TrEMBL record:
<feature type="region of interest" description="Disordered">
    <location>
        <begin position="1"/>
        <end position="23"/>
    </location>
</feature>
<dbReference type="GO" id="GO:0051536">
    <property type="term" value="F:iron-sulfur cluster binding"/>
</dbReference>
<keyword id="KW-0479">Metal-binding</keyword>
<feature type="domain" description="4Fe-4S ferredoxin-type">
    <location>
        <begin position="58"/>
        <end position="88"/>
    </location>
</feature>
<protein>
    <recommendedName>
        <fullName>4Fe-4S ferredoxin-type domain-containing protein</fullName>
    </recommendedName>
</protein>
<keyword id="KW-0411">Iron-sulfur</keyword>
<dbReference type="GO" id="GO:0046872">
    <property type="term" value="F:metal ion binding"/>
</dbReference>
<dbReference type="InterPro" id="IPR017900">
    <property type="entry name" value="4Fe4S_Fe_S_CS"/>
</dbReference>
<feature type="domain" description="4Fe-4S ferredoxin-type">
    <location>
        <begin position="28"/>
        <end position="57"/>
    </location>
</feature>
<dbReference type="InterPro" id="IPR017896">
    <property type="entry name" value="4Fe4S_Fe-S-bd"/>
</dbReference>
<feature type="compositionally biased region" description="Basic residues">
    <location>
        <begin position="13"/>
        <end position="22"/>
    </location>
</feature>
<dbReference type="Pfam" id="PF12838">
    <property type="entry name" value="Fer4_7"/>
</dbReference>
<keyword id="KW-0408">Iron</keyword>
Length: 97
């Protein structure tokens, strides 16, 4: 049996397949309830994409929400329950009924 390299992992294969087929990746919205947030920075530390940053008061914000993979690590680890992650739904146009 051959040794697996990082490119042999299932995740890498799925990413390559998605690129080849032209399918778009699901996008997510992250909501921060700043009134509940105590600016601990746990969400910033746990984000695997490193797309959560802190403002001058230490409160979190998204730097690039389109890169969010929806892992919910920030939501799960937030001690104040100040974060929700939800799948982005397409907005309906006014002409669609």
């Amino acid at each position: 049996m051959a040794n697996k390299t990082p490119t042999d992992s299932g995740t890498a294969c799925k990413k390559k397949t998605a690129r080849k087929t032209g399918k778009t990746r699901e996008k997510f919205d992250v909501a921060f309830y700043l009134a509940w947030c105590k600016a601990c920075g746990i969400c910033i530390a746990f984000c695997p994409q490193k797309i959560i940053a802190a403002d001058k008061n230490g409160k979190p914000y998204m730097t690039d929400s389109d890169r969010c993979v929806g892992c919910r690590f920030c939501e799960i680890h937030c001690p104040d329950f100040a974060i929700t992650v939800s799948a982005r739904t397409p907005k309906r146009r006014e002409n669609d009924a």
